[in-house]
Amino acid sequence: MSTQLDDGPSFDLDITAPSARSSVDISTFRVGRHGGPDEADLAFRERLYGLIGAIVVAGGHVEAAMKRLILLLRDEQGGFSLVDKTWSDLHKLLVAQSRRSIPQASALAEILEWGEASELKRRRDDAVHASWWNWDGVGVMRSRFFRRQDGANIVCTIEDLDEDARLLFA
How far is CA 37 from CA 3, 27, 40, 52, 137, in A? Predict the structure, then answer.
């Protein structure tokens, strides 16, 4: 397929749609530059992958902190195997802890509210659970596959990814 972005560059793309499906949408396509990646693609990938990696590392730090905090608030002496839960389940456990009559409750509730307002889970999930369009010139685009929903394309900027990593590390 040949395409031109609005007032932007033109591209020759190879699009593969799954043949086993009777209908497809853009989120099910596999897209690549015709002829393979060029030098600009490789430079873009290096920057993109660095930011995605920062988001993944920061998300891992958040999950580990959630687990440590639950163990601390429960006064558990065991390790992470006692809190081997998803992000959503860890969040629910922390919300329950924030409603207890403990000295840390109000600070914990405030941090949880900040995390929700900052959409930390969405930011992490949108990076981790996506198929990234990894060639230069089309912006920062990914196909996201939500649980029990149709896929969607998400378009953002490099600066948005920087902000995602910054907030997750915070």
Answer: 17, 21, 8, 19, 12
pLDDT per residue as tens digits for the range 42-53:
999 999 999 999
Query: Which pTM was predicted?
Result: 0.82
Q: Give 134: exposed, middle or buried? Use CB within 10 Å, 0-12, 13-18, 19+.
A: buried
State the pLDDT at residue 144. Answer: 85
Tell me how many helices (H) and strands (E) the chain has.
5, 6
What token pair was written down for 61? 């730090």
Question: Which sign, positive or negative, has the C-alpha torsion 74, 79, 80, 81?
Answer: negative
CB 163 within 8 A of CB 127: no
